[in-house]
Amino acid sequence: MASQDIRIWRRGPAPTPATPADPGYFGPGSQVWRVLLHPAVTPFLAPVTALLELPHIGMQAVILDHDPLAVTSRTHRAMSPIMAVRRAQRTVGVPVPIILGDKPTADRIAAHLRRYHRPMTGTIPGTAEPYAAAGPELVLFAHVTIMQAALLVYEHFAYEGLRRPARLTPADRDQFWLEAKQFGILMGANPDEIPTTCHQVATYYASISHRYGVIESFGPDLAVTPVLSLLRGFGPAQLPQLAPLLLSALLTPQLMATLPRPARRNLGIPTFLDPLLNLSLRLTRPTLRAFTIHRFATALELRISGPDAASLSAHARRLQAAVA
Question: Which parts of the sequence belong to the ER-bound oxygenase mpaB/mpaB'/Rubber oxygenase catalytic domain (predicted)?
Answer without folding.
Answer: 33-289
